[in-house]
Design goal:
alpha+beta, Leu/Phe-tRNA_Trfase_C, single chain, 7 helices, eight-stranded mixed beta sheet, 30% helix, four-stranded mixed beta sheet, cytoplasm, Leucyl/phenylalanyl-tRNA--protein transferase, EC 2.3.2.6, transferase, Alpha-Beta Plaits, 26% strand, Aminopeptidase, 2 domains
């Protein structure tokens, strides 16, 4: 029998140390997706992940996938692509377009975890200045991008998409450069996969991740980095 913590109207979460091992990382259910609750969750290394017709489920997996910025892998072919591509890259120009596109990405399992409820919650988080997007454009058409949450001096990546070759890698390249400007040390990738591993994502114990996150949350992120604009090549 699974015993799971049920959230109430308060913003209290149980310690991630109480997360289940099966399914791995499941910590709690219930609550809501308000701006305050989401921020409180991300500051503690917890994030929501659930499908349609499921209650809100909260997770803190062990091990945790992170991308140390110094570990970001840029191949010669990608560097050449960055120099020569005609694709444009912007920040916070079309957050809604990015999250809607990410919700349409085909997953290995049926359906999507980016439900309408999630979309509305993260758009509100964006309006409040806590969620941001990188967009890639081809002649005015949105062809790639990513979005995530900023609970301090760390970017908690949520999802990415691409319709054009290398578009998501290009978005990640510009995101890393942007974060380096603020002295950020890593991106929270939540869970490692083959694509993220190819970019330099590694797995670390949850306890180590939480220590890193605790220090990052203490440091403010320069909000001017996220002013809507086109990004120039570094």
């Amino acid at each position: 029998m699974i015993e799971l913590f049920q959230l109430d109207k308060s913003l209290h979460f149980p310690s991630p140390a109480h997360a289940l091992t099966d399914p791995p990382g499941l910590l709690a259910f219930g609550g809501d997706l308000s701006v305050n609750r989401l921020l409180h969750a991300y500051q503690q290394g917890i994030f929501p992940w659930f499908s349609v017709n499921e209650p809100i489920l909260w997770w803190s997996p062990n091990p945790r996938g992170i991308l140390p910025l110094d570990n970001f892998s840029v191949s010669k072919s990608l560097r050449k692509f960055v120099r020569k591509t005609s694709l444009r890259v912007t920040v916070n120009k079309r957050f809604d377009g990015v999250i809607y596109a990410c919700a349409k990405v085909k997953r290995q399992s049926s359906g999507t975890w980016i439900t309408d409820e999630m979309i509305n919650a993260y758009i509100e988080l964006h309006r409040c200045g806590h969620a941001h997007s990188i967009e890639v454009w081809d002649d005015g058409e949105l062809v790639g991008g990513l979005y995530g949450v900023i609970p301090g001096n760390v970017f908690c990546g949520e999802s990415m998409f691409h319709y054009a070759t290398n578009a998501s890698k290009l978005a990640m390249f510009y995101l890393v450069e942007l974060l380096r400007q603020n002295g950020c040390e890593f991106i929270d990738c939540q869970l490692q996969n083959d694509h993220l591993a190819s970019l330099g994502c590694i797995e670390i114990p949850r306890a180590e991740f939480l220590n890193k996150l605790k220090e990052a949350v203490k440091q403010p992120m320069d909000q001017s980095l996220w002013l809507p604009r086109e990004l120039t090549q570094p």
